[in-house]
Write a structure and sequence with these properties.
The structure holds 2 protein chains of 2 kinds. Chain A is mostly beta strands. Helix content of chain A is 7%, strand content 46%. Chain A is globular and about 65 Å long. The longest helix of chain B has 20 residues. The two termini of chain B are 24 Å apart. Classes of the chains: A mainly beta, B alpha+beta. At the A-B interface, loops of A face loops of B.
Chain lengths: 165, 149
């Protein structure tokens, strides 16, 4: 890992998604980012603004509905994420079949050698479309973060998340 | 092999080239037909993904010295360029590439070959009946992986 000083490079903020089937005893984290020139988690904050009788403004932010769009995603034979997405497409999966977890890893914040501060959260995979143009078979998808956010550490070599005690 | 070596190898292995010459020079063509010279003309970054992987393009010009006595010769020459363009589109099989940046070697692969502007470029001795030079621009798109973790 390069020395982390100054501005943080984009690839040091790493997004993993669990490509294992729901209910699988061991997660299978796949790093997102191939072919993506941009990947942003939109926070979608719920904000209520009211004007009171004194002429002031009262603003209340009470929740978030984070969401990320992974587009393009080029399907790759043998990739566990492709297998998962293809099953969603083929079986028109809904509800709990779409559940997964995502991990955000802060590569600039090393706890031990190869282990970094990370946050895990439950999520839903929404396949937006499939097919695409002549550049290759694409399955762009959205990730909806649904809470249960846990702080911990992530070992990038074993791809395992360990929640803080 | 770097991108220049890979493209030179693909052209050298091309049956169209082998039938005529069998060899590709770099930045050099001989005066007498048939001779091929591959001239690299620069490299550019096309895009970079959030992992730091890069899509890059290396540009080349292939010069070919051919005979040009008759229309039949010139038709054969232009047909060669046309067939070479078709060949290049199908020649990519994920050839491995090595890129060394700041003493660090990363791997990559060739993703696409395309071409444009295949045409008569110039005469020698100011006559069309002597050897003439054709050119075709070749674009080699390739992908290199980031430093990794």
């Amino acid at each position: 890992m390069a020395e982390t000083t100054g501005k943080i490079k984009r690839h040091w903020m790493v997004h993993y998604v669990d490509a294992a089937e729901p209910g699988s005893p061991t997660p299978n984290y796949v790093r997102l980012g191939d072919d993506l020139e941009e990947l942003s988690v939109e926070m979608n904050a719920n904000i209520e603004t009211t004007r009171n009788i004194l002429g002031g403004v009262s603003t209340r932010l009470d929740s978030y509905e984070p969401q990320a769009s992974v587009d393009p995603y080029y399907a790759e034979v043998g990739s566990p994420l492709h297998t998962r997405l293809q099953k969603i497409v083929d079986e028109r999966q809904t509800l709990d079949d779409l559940k997964t977890t995502v991990v955000e890893v802060h590569l600039w914040d090393e706890e031990a050698s190869g282990t970094y501060v990370a946050y895990k959260e439950d999520a839903i995979i929404e396949v937006a479309s499939y097919g695409g143009d002549t550049t290759g078979y694409q399955i762009p998808f959205n990730i909806h973060y649904i809470g249960n956010r846990v702080k911990g550490t992530f070992d990038v070599s074993t791809k395992t998340f360990t929640p803080d005690a | 092999m770097n991108i220049i070596e890979v493209v030179k190898q693909i052209l050298t292995d091309c049956p169209l080239v082998q039938d005529l010459s069998g060899s590709i020079n770099i930045d050099y063509t001989e005066d007498s037909p048939v001779s091929f010279g591959l001239y690299p003309t620069g490299d550019q970054l096309l895009k970079e993904d959030v992992l730091g992987n890069q899509d890059r393009r290396h540009n080349f010009v292939l010069y070919a010295v051919f005979q040009s006595f008759t229309d039949y010769d010139r038709l054969a020459n232009s047909t060669f360029l046309l067939n070479l363009a078709y060949y290049l589109e199908k020649a990519v099989t994920g050839q491995e590439i090595e890129v060394t940046i700041n003493n660090e070697t990363v791997s990559g692969k060739l993703t696409k070959l395309s071409s444009a502007n295949g045409m008569l470029y110039g005469y020698q001795d100011n006559t069309l009946s002597g050897p003439v030079t054709y050119q075709i621009q070749i674009y080699a798109d390739y992908y290199i992986e980031s430093e990794g973790l």
